[in-house]
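Case 444 in the screening queue. Each case pairs one protein sequence with one candidate compound; here the compound is iron/sulfur cluster. For every case the pipeline is the same: read the inputs, emit a complex structure as tokens, and attach any notable structural observations.

Predict complex for case 444.
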Amino acid sequence: MTPTTHIAMSSDISTAATCGWKYRLPKIFGVPTSGSFGGLVGWAVHDVLSKSGGAIHETWKKTTNGSHLKPLQLAIEPAKEEIFSGWREKFVEGAHTIDEFVALAETRLGAMLEGLAELMSDRGPPDRFLTEIQITNPESHHQGRIDALAEWDNEYETIDYKTYDDEAPRSHGYEHFQIVANGMLANYRNRHPESDFTHNQLVILYPGGRRYPRPTERVQEIVREARAYVLAALSSSSTETVQVLRVPKACWVCQRPDECNFYKGLERMHREGNLPSDEDELRRLLWQRRYRVLDFRQISHRWDFMVSEKPVEELERLRVAESGYHIGAVDKGTGCIILSRSQGTRTFLKGDPVQLVVLEPDRPILACMNFRGSIQAPVVNGLEVKITSHPLSEVTRLAANSPLIAMRTEVDLTKRELSSLDFIQRRASPIVKEIARIFLGVSG
Ligand code: SF4
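Case 444 output:
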């Protein structure tokens, strides 16, 4: 395969490991995903836990004997109140009321905290407790966002929060693949080979407690195979990329058999030469456009590869990144941080998306703690930045007094484009298809 700057996300790898088609439908064909009530509740619970990294770590450090549960419940209360009141404002009632939403979220969060308190009782407090850390391994073209990473001297725990339902994670299921994929990234952060789990404990917290999935040779092999599959599916300009993974599919519990049958049938008819010529032409044009969109997505990753390869002086000369920043102030009113740098910025303009990397000693640069946001304004000797990936309290907890590098990044808008291609192929009326065929043909 020709080297590209495509990236396989841990979540996509895990989906592809369960079924290649399940990955391809939303991520290649653009089939829209739909949320469930339980999934929305899980999202709220996940937000509370992500926002409470500091509270969790402080409780872990302070409570040396007895149960951690009560102090933990008290410590996360402010984040819980803030997140739940936000949902009270934005929740649209339909099949479920907001009271049902909050009641289920309270129950699920309570159960998650019980598992977390037990985990905290197992061993002393970590030196660092990182939340929502995005790690990119440019050598394997692999990226993931780990819910929490607890680090001791030479040991670390990769923690995933499974909040979207109450079921226990299954062996050789999605969550098992995901935590092994994320664990490989944690190994990379700690400068171990990705397959060396000797210092890395994997933990999945779910509303029924906690699980310690094993990173067996077989599961690692499945993850690596699925990663190669995702990268091939993203980068091939061929229309013959369907590979079948060696993992049993679970069609009987799949939520999208109709969409799957549609695309499988379409591709089969094409291979057998049974598609009417105008439909075959539309299919060809849509594949062409799809790969152009996916190729465009690579641009958003090019900066990552440059930052991992080139020295800082070269990156500054190319206006890809600037070093020498630190957090100067926090403006709670606007939700922004002020980054200070003696010589100000020569690279960034108002509105630019930006990634801030905390320069940690002995870590690969793309495995250091990082935050994403956008430039609100260049200011005297610095930048005003709105952080979108983390709450401000987590940014100051994890990055105060640390040197920061600000690097260019891009916002990925390709999902919407792919979904309009799916609409044309699957649901548009014949006249719209005809117009699309002409339009794609002319512009292609
Ligand atoms: S119906 Fe079966 S093959 Fe199709 S996406 Fe679902 S699990 Fe995969």
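Case 444 observations:
- The CA atoms of residues 359 and 404 lie 6 Å apart.
- Residues 237-297+416-443 form one domain.
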